[in-house]
Structures
1.
Amino acid sequence: MNIKTYGPDEALAGLSRTGEQPEPTLPQHIIDRNSEIFGEVLNAHQVVDRIVTDVRERGDEAIRLYTKAYDGRDIAQLEVPREQWNAALVRIDPELRLALELAADRIRSFHEKQKRENWFDATELGMFGQIIRPLQRVGIYTPGGSAALPSSLLMVAIPARVAGVEEIIIAAPPRGDEGIPDVILAAAAIAGVDRVFAIGGAQAIAAMAFGTESVPQVDKICGPGNIFVALAKQRVAGTVAIDQIAGPTETLVLCDDSADLELVAADLIAQAEHDPLASAILVTTSKRIAEGVSAEIDAQASLLPREAIIRQSLEAQGVIALVDTLGQAIDCANAYAPEHLCLQVVDPWAWIPAVRNAGGIFVGENSPEALGDYTAGPSHVMPTGATARFSSPTNVNDFQKIISLAAANTLAIQTLGSATMRIAHAEGLDGHAASIRRRMDKN
C-alpha cells in the first residue's frame, strides 16, 4: 500500500496543522446532483445558504422539498411517533439491543462524574457565586451517510440528559421508503430523548435553528454530519449555539518497538474504514514497525468488506512517520492535535503529562480507539482538524450554562465604590459612576 512517509527531519513540519478550513471540494456526482436541484452550479457554501434561507422562510414546505430531492422520500409527517421507536426497539436484534444498553449505561456513568454544582461564597461584602442551569432544548443531528450510527446518538443525547436538558430532539435522515433505520429509533428510545424528526442534511440544521410549523427552535445544535451539515451549523451559529464544526475523523497511533505490529495495523485500519477522508497516522520510533506496517495493513484489509474505503483513506491521508525519540513523537502528536491519540509504548502513563493536544488519549494496546467509539464511556464526538488545540470532546458542560450571582451589601458599596467609580470615569461611563455615588451618599 502506498502510504506517505516522513523521516525524523520532516515529520514535525509534515504533521503540523493550524486548523485552517479550506474550501470544501465536492465529488462530481454531488456537484451534478446539486445542479439538478438548483438549476445552476453551486459550491458547498452556496448550496447551504440556499437551503437554510428556504427553510427559514418557508418552513415545513422547504423541508419536504429537500427531503424529496436529496432523500427520495415524500414525507407528510416530519415527526416520528413514539410508537415507532418502541416497535423498532422490539424489532432489532436482541443482542444488539443489549449492546446498545450496555454502551448507554457506561456513557451515562462516565458523564455523571462531570456534573457541576452551584456554589455560593458568603463574605463580609455579601454573597457571590454561580448558578448552573441546563439548556432548555437541544437538537441533536444523527448522520445517515454510508451507515446508520446509533452510537453517535447515544454519545450526544446521554450527556445532554445527564446535564438536565429539559427537551432533547433528534433529527435523522430518512432512507427511501424505509424512513429512519430501526437501530437509530431504538437508540433514541434507549437514550431517553423526547422527539424524533425524519429530516436530514442542512435542512435539518436550519429547521432546528429557526423553528418551523413542526420543528421547535432549539437553544443548541450538536452532533456530527457531512460537509453540508457542518457548513449549515456554521451558518446558523449565533442564532443558536453549536458544539463544533466536525471534520473527517482522525487517529494518531504513537508507538515504540514494544508495540504489536498486528495491533498497530488493525488500529490504523479501524480508523481508515470510517471514510475515504479519514486520517490514520502512525508516528513511531521503531524501524521494524515503520517498514512492516504497510504489508500488514494490506494483509488485514484484504479480509474486510470495506477494503476499498480503507485503501482510499490510507493512500490519500495516511502517514507513516519514523522519528528518533519518543519526545519527538510526542512533539509530532501535539503539532497534529489529533482527535484520537493512541499510546502503544512501554510506559504510556509516563508520557501522558507531555500530551497537550488531543481529543482523547487511549492508553496502551488494550485501549484501542474502537473501544472508545462504543463502550469505553467518554463521548466519541471529539474535536477534529487540529481544533483539539482549543476545544474538548462532547461533555456535560456543553449542555449547561453558568449564571453569575452577586448579592452585595452596604459594606461592599463603601469598600468597592471608589475603585468602581474611578474605573467608570476612566472609561467615560459617568452614569455608571453616578449609580455608585448615589448609593454611597445614601449610606
2.
Amino acid sequence: MRNFIKKAVALALSCTAALGLAGCGETPDAETGAVDESGNTVVKVMFHVDESSAEGKAYKQRVSAFNTDYKSENIKISATFKARDDNSMTGYDTELSSMLNAGNLPDIITFDAPNCASYAATGLLYDLSSLVPQDVQDDFISLNEYDGKLYGLPIQESSAGFFYNKALLDQAGVNVSGYTVENPWTFDQFKEVCQKLKNAGIQAVDMRLRENTGEQSTYLLYPFIYAAGGQFVSQDGFTATGYFNGTGAESGFRFIKDLVDAQYTSFTVGADSNSDFMNGKVGLYLSSGWTIPDIREKYESNFPSGWGILPYPKGTVAASATGSWSFGITDNQHTDKSKIIKALLYLVTPESSKAITNATGMIPALKSVETNYAAGSPESVLRNQLQTTGKERPVTVGYPKFSTCFRNVLTAINGGKSVAEALNTEATSLQQELNKLKGV
C-alpha cells in the first residue's frame, strides 16, 4: 500500500478555507493536506453518521486503531461526523456540494453507492483505479465504478427482505418455510399470504410507504420494478422515456398499488411509530439488515415463536435490494494521495469490515471475511440473496433526480393518480434533468 502518488497542479488551502476541517495548530500543505504540530500528516475523513451511534463508535474505534498503527509513519486520521437525516440524504449531499464549491473537501468521505456516478461526474470523487491493488479490488463483492473507473470501496453490503413474526403467521395458518432464495415466492403467493393474514384480523405487511420522503423508500421498493421486468433508464443512464414509464415499470408499481388497494398495507401503517412490527401488530415488515441487531437487542422477547427473513417475491424475474455506503477519496487540492490511500485501505480491511458490520447488522463487503452465519439465519438469507438476485439501483449521473421521481410516483398514486399517469409525468421530469446533465 506504499508509494501511491498521482501528480497534478497543487492549490494551497488556507486554514480559514478549511472551515473547521483543519484543526487548530495544523499547517496546510498543498500536496498532502494538513500537518499538525507533531509533524503528522492529517487525513481528513467525514462520516455520514452520528458519532454516538453504534456505527459511529465503530468508525471511531477503527480511526483510533489506524492512528496507533501508523504513528511511526506520522500519519493521523482526523474524523468529522455529519449525521444525515434518518430518511434523507439531502443534508449530507448539500454539505458535500458546499464543500466542493468552496474547495475545502475532506480527503475521504463516506457516500451512498447509487450516488457514485453523480459524484464522479461532478468532480467530487477521485479516480482510484491506479491506487487500489487488483488483489484488493478482487476481494470486494462489488465496487463503486462509473465510466470504467473505480471511485469507491464499500464499507459494507446490504440486502433487504421481509421480516416475519412466526406467531402471527401461525395464527393465520400460513407456512412460509418453503420460500427461500433458491425457491422464492411469487407476487401472487405474496398476495395470498397477505390475504390470509388479513382474514385473521392481522395487519398483513408494513411496506414502509409512510417513509416516502427520502432514499429509504426508494432503496426498499425499487426491486419490485426490476422483478416485474421493468427498467428505469437506458444503459448509458441518459434516457428515461420508455424505461421509467415502460410496461414493466408500470407493472411493478401496480403491484405495490394492489397491496394498498387490497388493504394489505397503506401509506399510514405504523405512521405513529416504527415499532408496530416489533410489538407484534404486523405480520411482515420490509427492512434491511440494520433491523437485525435492533430486534435482537430490544425486541427478542416480543417474538416467542420466533422471527426470520423472507426474500423479495419474484415477478417475471427475481431481484433484490443492494448497494450501501462506501469510502471514496475526494478530488480535492491534495495532489499526493499516498498517505490518504493508506487510510482508506485501512478503513476497509477485514478487521474494519467486521467491526463495522457487527455494529450495523449489514453484510461484510469483503469475500475474505469469514461470517459463519448459521444456515437459515437472517444474515445467511440476506447474504445469499445479495449474491444471487441483488441488483443495484440505476447507474446514472441523474440518480438524485431519479430517486425523487421514484418517490413522486408513490406520492401521486397515494393522491389518486393512476400508475400510468404518475409514471408519464415523472418520466418527463427525469428526462428533462438527464438532458440538462448531458448538455442536450
